[in-house]
C-alpha cells in the first residue's frame, strides 16, 4: 500500500467487485418479478398439458406416467390426496414439499387451480386438480433446481471471467499511469541536485502531459533564475571589487609619504572618498531594491498632488542640470491628485531625471510632461542625450546592466532603472522606454489615480 501502483490496482479491483455484485443484486431485484411471472406461466402451461394428456390416455400406472412426464417437462411433481401421503416424481427435497401450504392443497382438492404469489415467497409452485379413477388429487409443479443451479453457475463463471479480465487490464493500465509519475520523480530529484537542464519528453494531452509541460517550464525558469543569480553575484563582485581596488591601491600609496607629493596626496584622498561613496551608494541601492522586491516593504499610501511632487524633484536636482546648462521643460497641469507612496514616487522621478541629466550633453533639453488619460496618468521624461542602441534598449531595466553609452557616461551601478521598474510595479503601473542613438531617450510611466496596492485577502487589517 506504500506505492501508488499498488493503490491504483487495489482501488480498481475493489471498484470492479463492488460494481459486479451491486449490478447482480440490482438486476435480480428489477427482473425477479418478471422472471417469476414467466416461470409460473410456463409451469401452468406444462401442468395443463400433463392433465390433458392424462385425461386422453387414462394410463393404468399413474405413478409411472407421472414419473415419465416429470422427466419430459423437467419440472418436479408432487401429488397430494385426501388422506394419502404426498408422492413425489423427480428430485424433490422434503423442505420444498413442506413449503406448500395446506390451504393451497385443500384449494386444489376442491377443484380450483392454485398459483403461488410472485413476491415474498420461498417456493414458486402451480397446483392443478387431477381426476384419477373417480378421485380428485392435487398435482403441484415445482421449479427445476437443475435449471437454477445451471443459471447460477453460468452467472458465477461470467463474473469470475469479467473480474479476471478486468484485473489484467487494470494491471497494465495502472503501470501505464504510474510510469510518467516515476519519470517525474526522477527528474525532480535531478532538479533538486541543481541539474536545471532536465526535460520530460512526454507527448501526452491529458493531465499528466500538462503536468510534464508545467515541470519543463519550471525547469527552464529555474535555469534562467540560476543564470540570473550567477550574473547577479558576478556583477556585485565586479561593482564592489572595482572601488575596493582603487581604495586599496591609493591607500597603499599613501603609506609611503616620501613617494607621494602633497598635491597627489589630496587627489588620492579625494579618489578614496569618491570610491567609498560609490560603495555606499551601491549598498544603499542593493538594500533598497531588495526591500522593494520583498513582500514586507512598507507602502505608505497618501493622496497628494502629483504635479507638485514632480516639480519638487526638478527643483531639488537643479544644481545638476543647471551645471550642464541643460534646459528643463516641465509640462505639468496643476492640481492632479494621486493616491500613492510619495517617497517612492520621489525616488522614481529622481532616478529618471538623474539618468537624463547624466547622459544628456551640455546645452541639451529635458522635458517632463504629465498627461491625464481617463483614470490614469502618463508621465514622460524625454531628453536629447546620446540615446540607446536597439540591442541594449530591451535590457536597460535589468539590474546591473549597462549599455556602452552608460559606461562612458559615469560610474553608476546599473541599479537605478531596476529600482524604477520595481516602484512602478508596486504602484500597479507600466513603464516603457524608446530611444534613438544620438537623438535621445524617452521613458513613459503610466500610473493609476489610485496606485495603492490591493491588500492580500489573508492580511490582517
Structural features, described:
With 461 residues, the protein is α+β, with helices and mostly antiparallel strands. It folds into 3 domains: 4-149, PAS domain (Beta-Lactamase), CATH 3.30.450; 207-291, Helix Hairpins, CATH 1.10.287; 298-448, Heat Shock Protein 90 (2-Layer Sandwich). The protein has 13 helices and 12 strands. A 5-stranded antiparallel sheet has the order 2-1-5-4-3, with helices on both faces. Strands 7-9-10-12-11 form a 5-stranded mixed sheet, covered by helices on one side. The two termini are 46 Å apart. The model is unreliable at 404-411 and 455-461 (pLDDT under 50).
Can you summarize this structure?
With 461 residues, the chain is of the alpha+beta class. It has 13 helices and twelve strands.
Amino acid at each position: 500500500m506504500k506505492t501508488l501502483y499498488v493503490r491504483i490496482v487495489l482501488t480498481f479491483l475493489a471498484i470492479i467487485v463492488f460494481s459486479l455484485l451491486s449490478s447482480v443484486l440490482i438486476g435480480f431485484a428489477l427482473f425477479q418479478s418478471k422472471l417469476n411471472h414467466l416461470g409460473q406461466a410456463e409451469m401452468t402451461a406444462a401442468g395443463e398439458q400433463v392433465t390433458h394428456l392424462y385425461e386422453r390416455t387414462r394410463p393404468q400406472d399413474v405413478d409411472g406416467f407421472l414419473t415419465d412426464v416429470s422427466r419430459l417437462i423437467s419440472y418436479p411433481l408432487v401429488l397430494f390426496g385426501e388422506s394419502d401421503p404426498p408422492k413425489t416424481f423427480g428430485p424433490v427435497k422434503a423442505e420444498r414439499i413442506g413449503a406448500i401450504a395446506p390451504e393451497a392443497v385443500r384449494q386444489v382438492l376442491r377443484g380450483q387451480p392454485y398459483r403461488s404469489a410472485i413476491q415474498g415467497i420461498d417456493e414458486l409452485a402451480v397446483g392443478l386438480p387431477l381426476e384419477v379413477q373417480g378421485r380428485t388429487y392435487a398435482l403441484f409443479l415445482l421449479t427445476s433446481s437443475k435449471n437454477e443451479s445451471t443459471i447460477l453457475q453460468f452467472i458465477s463463471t461470467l463474473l469470475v471471467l469479467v473480474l479476471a479480465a478486468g484485473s489484467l487490464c487494470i494491471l497494465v493500465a495502472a503501470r501505464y499511469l504510474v510510469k510518467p509519475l516515476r519519470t517525474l520523480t526522477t527528474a525532480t530529484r535531478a532538479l533538486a541536485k541543481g541539474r536545471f537542464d532536465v526535460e520530460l519528453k512526454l507527448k501526452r494531452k491529458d493531465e499528466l502531459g500538462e503536468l510534464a509541460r508545467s515541470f519543463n517550464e519550471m525547469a527552464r525558469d529555474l535555469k534562467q533564475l540560476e543564470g540570473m543569480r550567477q550574473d547577479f553575484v558576478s556583477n556585485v563582485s565586479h561593482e564592489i571589487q572595482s572601488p575596493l581596488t582603487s581604495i586599496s591601491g591609493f591607500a597603499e600609496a599613501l603609506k609611503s609619504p616620501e613617494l607621494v607629493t602633497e598635491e597627489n596626496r589630496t587627489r588620492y584622498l579625494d579618489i578614496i572618498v569618491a570610491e567609498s561613496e560609490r560603495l555606499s551608494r551601491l549598498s544603499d541601492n542593493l538594500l533598497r531594491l531588495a526591500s522593494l522586491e520583498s513582500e514586507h516593504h512598507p507602502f505608505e499610501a497618501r493622496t497628494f498632488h502629483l504635479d507638485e511632487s514632480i516639480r519638487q524633484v526638478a527643483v531639488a536636482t537643479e544644481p545638476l542640470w543647471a551645471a550642464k546648462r541643460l534646459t528643463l521643460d516641465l509640462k505639468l497641469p496643476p492640481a492632479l491628485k494621486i493616491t500613492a507612496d510619495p517617497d517612492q514616487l520621489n525616488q522614481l522621478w529622481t532616478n529618471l531625471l538623474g539618468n537624463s541629466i547624466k547622459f544628456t550633453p551640455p546645452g541639451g533639453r529635458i522635458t517632463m510632461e504629465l498627461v491625464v488619460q481617463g483614470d490614469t496618468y502618463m508621465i514622460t521624461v524625454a531628453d536629447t542625450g546620446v540615446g540607446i542602441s536597439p540591442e541594449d534598449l530591451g535590457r536597460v531595466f535589468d539590474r546591473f546592466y549597462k549599455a556602452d553609452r552608460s559606461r562612458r557616461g559615469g560610474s553608476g551601478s546599473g541599479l537605478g532603472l531596476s529600482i524604477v521598474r520595481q516602484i512602478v510595479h508596486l504602484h500597479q503601473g507600466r513603464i516603457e522606454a524608446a530611444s534613438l542613438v544620438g537623438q535621445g531617450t524617452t521613458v513613459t510611466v503610466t500610473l493609476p489615480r489610485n496606485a495603492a496596492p490591493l491588500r492580500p485577502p489573508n492580511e490582517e487589517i
